[in-house]
Amino acid sequence: MRLNDPIDGLPGLKMARPGAMAGLGLTTVADLLWHLPRRHEDRRAFRPIASVAEGETAILNGTIERVRLARIRGRRGYTSAVVADQSGRIELRWWNMPWLAKSLETGMELVLYGKVKDGRITQPEYEIVRGEDSLHVGRIVPVYPLTKGVTGPGLRRAMYVALHEVEETMPDPLPESVRERRALPELTQALNDIHFPADRKSLEEAKRRLRYDELFLFQLAVALQRRRARSQPGVQHRWSEELDERICARLPFRLTRAQERVVREIRDDLCATAPMNRLLQGDVGSGKTAVALYAALVSIANRRQVALLAPTEVLARQHRATMARMLEGSDVRIEVLVGSTKAADRRKRLAALAAGDVDLIVGTHALLEPEVEFERLGLVVVDEQHKFGVRQRAKLIRKGVRPDVLVMTATPIPRSLALTAFGDLDVSVIDEFPPGRRPPETKVLAARSRGIAYRTVRGEAEAGRQSYVIFPLVEDSDEIDAASAQQGFSVLAEVLSGLNVGLVTGRTPGAERDAIMDGFRAGTVDVLVGTTVLEVGVDVPNASVIVIENAERFGLSTLHQLRGRVGRGGTDSYCFLVAKKLSADAKARLGIMEESSDGFRIAEEDLRLRGPGEFFGTRQHGLPEFRVADLVRDQDVLRRAREDAFDLLEREPRLARYASLRAELVRRFAGRFDLYDIG
Q: Fewer CB within 10 Å, N- or C-terminus of the chain?
């Protein structure tokens, strides 16, 4: 058999329920073999029957003394057997499995595994001793993810047969030179040992090989994507000292050294023949918007159009307002396009954009719609890029002819993720804050102590400063035990009586939201209540306090983003993390926010605690589902795999001598990456 053959053709197996296997995503032999155990149980040590206490799980070896089929009126039937060894005897009971009464016979020797409850073992896993190797007991046993209709023993038998059927025909995609360099076992050995290891050492070696495979193959796909992006000509912008002076004169402040360094990196990319693909990282408030505007003005000066994609209407409007202020009096034509844009305005702006009469368009997902067309798109800027899926970003990029691309994030991305999710991008980091920025003083509070936070809110309001209050939910939920912004707003209107309290969520109507946000920016709204819609982009230097309710429900990176809303005005600022359930784990996790204002340290800890999927808060980030590798634990492996992958592609650009490697790349990443160069 071969890897692509259907599993219902495996010999010697009664695949009565192929649909059940399909429920696990298992339709081919390859699917089956890469359905890896979620854990292993060591079932090698047999126990005397008399030594097993109530509630214990044990491996036993005994001889059947009696078998019978019991029928209970009005209830299910069960098969009962009594097994004995030299120390004693115990009853086994299998519910609703009457055929066992015919297959089990007095005098048979069994090895079995199960838990003692009420003096017997119910539904034990067992095997009849016939001299062949056991799959379920007497060894380190794989325990798999299951679904309805698929049992652990049944899946083990299918796995065992599949491994032996393909061991002579299974190709090893990893080049022999790489395997020898890293002292890795062959793939067939690794798969045998991940499923049925002889000992713990062979199991760990198998994990080491499969862990390396995952990271190597992904980095090879990234390298191919990177090479393809740089192999085709893009927009070659022109730059001059005079243009630099004109742009810098538009900025309301002098660029920091870090901003100047990043601007040079972006400028060099814009002037190159290959399209720019750059990730700009910068902590909250580090000045990424000014850098993005610099890049946009270079493109506009070259008679190109610029699109800036933002995840929320609040942020899109904030960007439009900020940039419009900086460009006041210039010839740059700037517009905004969001979901709530009225139909007549939308038609007018789309026509102007298609005719080339708009230089800079700022918008949300509305920019991705098919009817949005550009005359000469030269630069795409994606803000808070992790809020968008890979395909969503590609939709906007395809509206031009290989435009330059700058993706930005205020969520510091640990190096391990930067090499995976964004390995095809060049990375720039703004690691310096503008003068006057001071990190807020952060305090974790139990719910009963939240009065401290709101007394500070009132005190700051009396001093002429403003505050944010953030809730995890928009409205109350019967299913989620968390506070809502709507309920919180009602309570705070009384608690903070005398202050002007406003409410903004993702469901606030556009005109009402704009009025409240304008009031907050103007200082007429003292306290702004909202959800994580306020996580990014809201820049009000007069805001000095942020209170985050149910803080234990947020990821650390989100908390850090929210905290960045304050501390922008040069005065003392405060962040209160109010926890409804301040468990020991929550206290330790939130304590990191008290200890550090370093976004990269917080992001590393967030990644370690939550994993990459939850770290991004979306499954659209482009990362594969690593089954063995761990991006936090395996950073050294990732570095070596990346080195090997890029080195191999440098020596063998089309992988012509590695047919099985090409096939495995296509199997794993078809549709996720451009792999056309290798067939």
A: C
